[in-house]
Amino acid sequence: MTAFVLRRSLQSILVLFVMSLIVFAGVNLVGDPVDMLINPEADQQEIERVIKDLGLDRPVTEQYWYFLVNAFQGDLGKSFVFGEPALKLIVQRMPATFELALFSLLIAVVFGIPLGIYAGLKPASKVSRTIMAGSILGFSMPTFWVGIILIMFFSVHLGWLPSTGRGDVATVFGITSSIFTLDGLSHIFLPAFNLALFKLSSVIRLARAGTREIILQDYIKFARAKGLSEKRVINVHLLKNILIPIVTVIGLEFGSLIAFSTVTETVFAWPGMGKLIIEAIYNLDRPIIVAYLMIIVLIFVTLNLIVDITYSLLDPRVRIKGEG
Amino acid sequence: MAQGSTGGQITAGQQAGSQAGWRKLWSDYSESPLAVAALFVFATILFIAIFAPFVSPTDPYDLATVDIMNSRLAPGSEDFAGNLYILGTDGAGRDMLSSIFYGLRVSLGVGALSGLIALIVGAILGLSAAYFGGRYETIIMRIVDIQLSFPSILMALVILAIFGKGVEKTIIALILVQWAYYARAARASALVEKNKEYVEAAKCLALGDRRIILNHITPNCMAPLIVVGTLQTAHAISLEATLSFLGLGLPITEPSLGLLIGNGFEYMYTGDYWISIFPGIALLITIVSINLVGDQLRDMFNPRLQR
To answer: Pick from B234, B241, B273: which is nearest to A152 by CB?
Structure first.
C-alpha cells in the first residue's frame, strides 16, 4: 500500500514537472519571452530591469530553473493589468469558484438522485420518458447557450433572479460565501443550475441504471417480503446501494466542474478564477495565464491522486495491477 | 494454386455478403424510428451546410446587400425593399437565417476536419500501441490516461491561451483534445483482434507489420471507431462553439454558430432574443441529431445487445 501511494505520488510530481515544462516552453519558446512576459506599456528602463529580474538574459535551461524556483516560492510574476502578484489574484478568486462548483454539485445530487430513482422504478411511464429525454438534452446543450437562455428567461423576461455578480456575502465559521445571505443565494442559483445541468444529467442516468439493476436483487425482494414499506425499501436499501457509483463519479468529476466554470462564470459575470483567466487571455495578461495553468494542474493532479488512492483502498485489485 | 482459387471465391462471396451486410446494417439501424429521424435531420443539416451559398436567401457577408438600417429586425419582419427576414436580423443588419446556414458550414467543417485528423492520428497510435506492446504501448497509453484525466475544455483553453486564436489553431486544439479518445478506443479493440487467428495467419505469411495493421486489423476495428467518431464530432462542434463564444476560438472572419450566439449575447438585455436563440437552436439540433445517430450505432455494434 505504502509503495503504491509513494509510486503514485511520484507520478503526480512527474506530471506536474512535465506540465511546468510545457507551460514554460509554451510561453518562452513559441513567442519572444520579452514580449510575452513584460508589460507592453513598460519603458526601456523597466524592460531591462524585468529582463534582469526574470533572468531572461541567461541561457534557456537556467531560465527554466529560475521559473521553477520562483514557482516553488509562490512567485509566478505580477499581473500586467492589476499590478499585483498573479498567484494572489487567483487565490483571492478561488473561493467564489469553489462555492459555485460545490453548489452545483449539490443541485445535481439533490435533484438528480430522486429523478433517476423514479425513472428507474417506473421506466415505462410518461414522466420517466420525459426525465430521460431531458437528460439527453442536458448532455447535448452547450453550457454557455443554456446560460444565455436562463438569463433571458429568468432575469430579463420574468425578472425573478439577478443574472450577474455574486451578490452579498457573509462570513460563517470563517468561510465567506454568498450562500449565507438571501441575496447571495438568489445570485448563485442561476449560474449553479447552469453549471449543474451536465452533472445533473449524468447523475440521473447513473441513478436510473443503478435502480434498475438493484431493484432485481434478492435483498430487495427479501426486504419487500419482510413487509417493509416501499418507502423504507427505497430510502434505505435501494438508496445506499446506488450511492456508491454516484459518489465515485461525482468525486472524479469535481475537477471538470471547476474547468467548466470558466464558461459559466463568463456568462454570468461570476467573479471567480474562471472569469479571471478568460479576461487574462483577452488582455494577454500572461503571468495570470501561467499562474492559473500551474494552479489548475496542481488541483487536478491532487484530485486524481486522491481518487486513485481512495480507489486502491476500496478495491485492492487496482493496487495489485499497479504493482504488477 | 488452390489457395488462389479459393481466394477468388471468397472475394465474390464477400461482395454478395457485403451487400447483404449493408441491408442488415440498415435494418438494424432503422429499428429505432427516432434514430432514422435523427439521421434524416442530420442529412438535411449536412446538405444545408455544404450548399449554404445556394440555399441561403441572402449572402450575409456580401457588404453590398447588407444594410445597417435593417439591424435588429424582429423575426418575420420585412425591410423597405420587401425582403422577408424569417428569423430577423442581427446587429449589423444581416439576415439571421442566412448567417445560421453559413455558420453551420463553418461549425460542421471545423468539427469534421478536426475529428477526421484526430481519428487518423489516434487510430494509428492506438492500433500500433496494441500491436507492438511493450514500452511503446506503456508510454502512449500513459499519455492518453493523463490527458483524459483533464477535461477537454481545459486542454483546449490551455492550448489556445498559449498559441492564440485562429482557424488552424482551433483545429489543432480540437485534434490535440480528441486524439486520446480515439487512441483508447482503437487500442481496446485492437487488443482483442490481434490475438485472433487471421492475424496469426498473416504473420505466418511473413507480411509486414504495417500491412497487417492497416489491411487486416484496422478494418475489424472500424465499428467502435465510427461510434466514437460520431459522438466525438458532436463534442468537437460543441467545444468549438464554446471556445468561439468565449472569443478564444475562431476569428470573426469565420463566423461559426458559437460566434453568432456570442454576437447575440450583447443584445440579450434589450430583449432581442432571436440573435442568440436561433443559432443556438441550430447548434442544439445539430448536436442532438449526431448524438442520437451515434447512440444508435453504439447499440448496433454492442455485442452484448446483439439479437
So the answer is: B273
Q: Which domains does chain B have, with CATH numbers?
A: 31-45+91-187+222-305 (1.10.3720.10)
Q: Is A26 an 8 Å CB contact of chain B?
A: yes
Instruction: For residue A66, give the nearest of A53, A80, A49 by alpha carbon.
Output: A53
Question: Does ipTM come in above 0.95?
Answer: no
Decide: residue A17, CB within 10 A, 0-12 exposed, 13-18 middle, 19+ buried.
exposed
The per-residue pLDDT for range B171-228, each reduced to its tens digit, is 999 999 999 999 999 998 888 888 888 888 888 888 888 888 888 888 888 888 888 8
* Of the candidates B230, B201, B227, the residue with the CA atom closest to the CA atom of residue B216: B201
Contacts of B264 in chain A (CB under 8 A): 148
The 10s digit of each residue's pLDDT in B29-56 is: 888 888 888 899 999 989 888 887 887 7
Q: What is the pTM of this model?
A: 0.81
CA distance B149 to A273: 20
Name the residue among A15, A142, A289 with its Cβ closest to that of B161. Answer: A289
Mutate to test the interface with A, among B107, B143, B146 (most CBs of A within 10 A): B146
Counting every residue written for chain A, the total comes to 324
